[in-house]
Design goal:
The complex is a heterodimer. By secondary structure, chain A is an all-alpha fold. Chain A is 70% helix and 3% strand. In chain A, strand 1 and strand 2 form a beta hairpin. Chain B is of the alpha/beta class. In chain B, 35% of the residues lie in helices and 23% in strands. In chain B, the strands form four sheets. Chain B has a nine-stranded mixed β-sheet with strand order 5-4-6-7-3-8-9-10-11, with helices on both faces. Chain B has a six-stranded parallel β-sheet with strand order 16-15-17-18-14-19, with helices on both faces. In chain B, strands 1-2 form a two-stranded antiparallel ribbon. Chain B is elongated. Chain B starts with 10 loop residues before the first strand and ends with a strand. Classes of the chains: A mainly alpha, B alpha/beta.
Chain lengths: 139, 432
């Protein structure tokens, strides 16, 4: 089965989110990995839609899928509070796999249009998210 | 109090076709309402239809979910309906999950969070889905007062903040008595799914609606890809029967028959053509329609035993051109063979066709076919439903010709096995 996380678009979007967080927001919190900040920003809209336990379940599922694809993620963990524990020194590529799967799950459940809308609401200044959102709106 | 001194209650359009009419014009603004019913009967869809029809960015809708279907899945399914507008999500329509507040802090936590959200968002509409789960967690010995206080405070809060509210719950009818929620509610919408043999029929009842007169009784509704569509028992046609200063007679399209009938069928009458198979009932009905078309009177044929193209092809075999008026919109052939049809749906179809064509003549061919298309539970009410339908349609000036197949007997002269003579003003009996 081709999952939504496998699409180039989803992977590119995940990389954009991570790059944005690393560049723009990273200066304020240099010790926090970008992947954690992306997950944390997605926590609010997803908790609204699925509850705190639901958000944790989605993230855990995304991590399981990502771990199958990227063995480097095997040491990563979703904690009881829904945050991601990332071993020191993990780089963006592994994080992108996780984020891509999380976005993929969102697309599976609520469709591409609503997923892009939610991402656009969170990263309103991110050019890639805006372009994709507007492209989708024009369909 | 005279009319000038009374407070004017604005009515909000529900976005559900047919429901505003049942409610008496729309839903009273700032009312505190319950949507109750068994699982799967359309409660959540009804609420969504309402919020997407009414919520705006300035006055959004807050949709609280509690320990029931999470919003994530709700969005997955609700976006399949055509009324769902993704552009409204997160601005005009906002979801808030209260599960954690309920689990951690009980009713007080739920009330606090709702208060906080309402004060921040200034919503015009608030939905709590499922409200039943909120109360169930606290509904046990010694907690009744706490529940009653919670419901009352919630109603007070939401009314004070000028929000129109829906509480959604899976209630059974046996819970109607002594339930504080129902006492406080201004409106109580009950949705049913009735199973009769292999058919399922959806019905709704407005059990209570403060401030305005709703149409009493059970109303059929369907759920399609457009959402709910309700069919009022009266379809708004409850006015006085149209009266004519002079009786105009409409030609049957058969000169000798017109002569026998004193010039034709009186306008606004219901005429029954009864007879055994092969006596020409359908042909008489077709000629009646064709005569109307020739006289500039658009018509509608509701057929149940043949398809529209077969119907017009058969007419052309007798030299009657129905294809042209059909193409020009002066004639509509309604062919309904869905499972579990209701008379109210049929009547809605006819009324819509009347609006489109300006029809003066209606043919129902045949009553037996009509009855067969109905869900079993509607067949038991067929006579009563047919009475409502024919009364309502003739009241707006439609002249109706219905056909009815009768067994041929030579020992008695019976006009109808249905005992439906009360439905007709005139009868023709055809024998071969």
């Amino acid at each position: 089965m081709t999952r939504n996380a496998d699409t180039t678009t989803t992977r590119e979007l995940a990389q954009s989110l991570l790059a944005y967080e690393a560049d723009e927001a990273g200066a304020a919190m240099p010790n926090e990995p970008a992947v954690c900040r992306v997950c944390d920003k997605l926590r609010r809209p997803l908790t609204t839609l699925a509850g705190a336990a639901g958000f944790r379940s989605l993230l855990a599922r995304a991590l399981t899928l990502a771990q199958r694809e990227s063995p480097a993620l095997r040491a990563w963990e979703v904690k009881a509070d829904g945050s991601v524990e990332v071993p020191n020194g993990e780089a963006v590529p592994s994080g992108a796999v996780l984020i891509a799967h999380l976005i993929g799950l969102m697309i599976t459940f609520i469709g591409e249009a609503l997923t892009l809308r939610l991402l656009h609401d969170v990263w309103i200044n991110l050019p890639d998210a805006k372009v994709m959102f507007e492209r989708n709106e024009q369909k | 109090m005279n009319e000038q001194n009374r407070v004017k209650i604005n009515q909000l359009l529900t976005g559900v076709p047919g429901l505003d009419e049942i409610l008496g014009g729309g839903l009273p603004e700032f009312s505190f309402n319950i949507i109750a019913g068994a699982p799967g009967c359309g409660k959540t869809t009804l609420a969504h239809q309402f919020i997407f029809a009414n919520a705006t960015v300035d006055r959004p809708a807050l949709y609280f979910t509690v320990l029931g279907e999470p919003a994530l899945k709700m969005l997955r399914y609700q976006q399949q309906f055509s009324f769902f507008d993704a552009a409204k999500l997160n601005n005009a329509v906002r979801f808030v999950n209260l599960s954690q507040d309920l689990v951690e802090r009980g009713l007080e936590g739920v009330l606090d969070e709702i208060s906080k959200q309402v004060e921040a968002a200034n919503p015009s509409i608030v939905v709590v889905d499922s409200f039943r789960t909120v109360l169930r967690s606290e509904m046990h010995e010694g907690k009744n007062m706490a529940v009653q206080t919670f419901v009352q405070q919630l109603a007070l809060l939401l009314t004070s903040w000028e929000a129109t509210t829906f509480l959604i719950g899976e209630y059974s009818e046996s819970e109607l008595r002594d339930n504080p929620v129902f006492t406080v509610a201004d409106g109580l919408f009950w949705l049913f799914q009735q199973v009769d043999r292999n058919s399922v029929v959806r019905k709704m009842q407005i059990m209570k609606l403060r401030g305005q007169a709703s149409v009493p009784g059970l109303h059929t509704f369907r759920i399609t890809e457009a959402g709910l569509q309700a069919f009022s028992r009266t379809l708004g046609l409850v006015g006085e029967r149209k009266t004519y200063s002079t009786v105009k007679r409409l030609s049957m399209g058969i000169p000798a028959l017109d002569e026998m009938m004193g010039g034709g069928v009186p306008e606004g009458d219901s005429l029954l053509i009864a007879g055994s198979s092969g006596t020409g009932k359908s042909l008489i009905a077709t000629q009646f329609l064709a005569a109307g078309i020739r006289a500039g009177e658009p018509g509608i044929a509701a057929v149940f035993e043949e398809r529209p193209n077969e119907y017009t092809a058969r007419a052309s075999e007798f030299g009657l051109d129905l294809q042209t008026p059909l193409a020009e919109g002066r004639l509509e052939v309604i062919y309904l063979r869905p499972l579990d049809l209701s008379v109210d749906e049929m009547m809605q179809e006819i009324l819509d066709a009347v609006k489109r064509t300006g029809a003066k003549r209606l043919v129902i061919d045949s009553l037996a076919g009509f009855e067969m298309a109905l869900a079993p539970s509607f067949r038991t009410d067929f006579r009563e439903s047919l009475y409502r339908m024919i009364f309502a349609l003739t009241a707006i000036g439609i002249t109706i010709l219905s056909t009815l197949e009768m067994p041929e007997t030579f020992t008695e002269l019976s006009f109808s096995s249905y005992s439906i003579s009360f439905l007709t003003d005139d009868m023709n009996f055809a024998r071969s």
